[in-house]
Amino acid sequence: MENTKEVLIIKYGEIALRGKNRYIYENMLIDAVRKNLTGCGDFWVHKEQGRFVVEWNSGADFGRAIPLVARIFGITSVCVAIKLAGQDFDDIKDVALAYARQHCKTPTTFKVDTRRANKQFPLRSDETSGLVGEHLLNNMEGLKVKLSAPEFTLKIEIRNSVYIYSTDVEVKGLGGLPPGSAGRGVLLLSGGIDSPVAGWLAAKRGIGLTAVYFHSPPYTSERAKEKVVDLARQLSQFGGKFKLMVVPFTDIQLKLVDRTPPEKITIMLKRSMLRIAEKVAAKEKALALVTGDSVGQVASQTLHSLHAMTGAANLPILRPVACFDKHEIIAIAQKIETFDISIRPYDDCCTLFLPKHPETKPKLSIIQSIEGSINELDGLMERAITESEIIKF
After folding, report:
1. Cα distances (angstroms) measured from residue 257 to each of 36, 49, 264, 328, 374
2. Which of 30, 143, 146, 298 is at 20 to 30 A from 314, Cα to Cα?
3. 385: helix, coil or strand?
């Protein structure tokens, strides 16, 4: 079709209600789109009255681009549309007809749905839909108008430019809020199934994440670390900047194992992780910690244990999967493609020192007393942070 080109139309949800601050959220979302489409050719992204439009100078690979965009939090749908060079109504009718002939299998029911954001366009939305629908009926056999739940819906959006597409080609997005729009958090990322899901759920509500992984060589292998790096890389695909800090934890772990009764070691290890994560949060200007705790799943996640751990940090601790059962968590992990990574058989630092009979009802006062008696702990934590490896995605 002459004077037309294929473009990506991106729709977004909640941020449309943000009033005067809306542009801030829109710019965050555009940055995430640009990040995910890096390497997808010579493109540019621009705003279009409640939409984003991605255009290519050449070499557009929509099959590759659409999944990369649809997984970004804040986006509700994405599709390939035909963009017209002008707003001549005869051109709109002809392009709509050519599009319907290509995408609409007859016989079928159909309707034309027009949205006129540009109020300078001379025809109202219903008038445009009626006249274009009449043009289709006059030039295609087997069509029947049905305004409620038709088999084929032709969409016309009249904005600064005119865009034509159908609901059949729309790919549903994840919704939520743009990455980082709600502030930053520090995710305690292990190699397990739960913490990547917790991070994903937190990111969906606009929390930009810095992930912290506690690495204990030689007790944990480089493969265990690689697994967590792959998990972080996968989480980064949902938009926004993502940083992973690999914290050397061996000295802290050995000190705690040496000075802690075996049944209390898991709580002590996790409290140390939370204390380190809070120190990282201060450097990252983060306002919350995020963990993969699920109530009652293991001994360290009873309410008593969670209470004993929570006192280690002053920041809010978000537990997005706290009330999910394991099957629900696994279902999300499979959906976001972290499950197969998480089940690689390489243990993290906690599992190697699990006691046979972990305490399920620890007393906070006793835990704090033991912790306070280990004078070297604060210095070991500061050194671990200083010596951390930082990986950016």
Report:
1. 43, 60, 9, 34, 11
2. 298
3. helix
User: Which residues, in sequence order, are CB contacts of 56 under 8 Å at separation 6+?
Assistant: 7, 41, 42, 43
Nearest Cα residue to 245 out of 221, 292, 211: 211
Distances in Å between the alpha carbon of 323 and those of 39, 198, 328?
39, 11, 10
Query: Residue 68 in contact with residue 171, Cβ under 8 Å?
Result: no
| Token pair listed for 44 | 């540019």
Q: For the chain, which residues score pLDDT lower than 70?
A: 1-2, 299, 348-353
pLDDT, tens only, 328-386 = 999 999 999 999 999 998 876 656 667 777 788 888 889 888 888 998 899 999 999 99
β-pairing, 75-84 vs 4-12, is antiparallel
Segment holding 391, helix H or strand E: strand 389-392
- Tell me the CA distances in angstroms from 27 to 18, 46, 78, 180, 340, one per residue in order: 13, 10, 17, 11, 33
Q: How far apart are CA 321 and CA 190, in angstroms?
A: 14
Local structure of residue 121 (DSSP, 8 states)? S
Return the DSSP state at 171: E
Question: Cα 107 vs. chain centroid, distance in angstroms?
Answer: 40
Tally of residues, the chain: 393
- The amino acid that residue 244 corresponds to is L
User: Count of CB atoms within 10 A of residue 105's CB?
Assistant: 9
DSSP for 129-143, written as a single string:
HHHHHHHHHHH-TTE
Nearest-angstrom CA–CA distance, 252 and 104: 65
Asked if omega into 218 is within 30° of 0 (cis), the reply is yes
* pTM of the full structure: 0.87
Residue-wise DSSP of 178-220: -TTTT-EEEEE--SSSHHHHHHHHHHHBT-EEEEEEEE-TTTS
3-state secondary structure of 318: strand
CA-to-CA distance for 220 and 215, rounded, in angstroms?
7
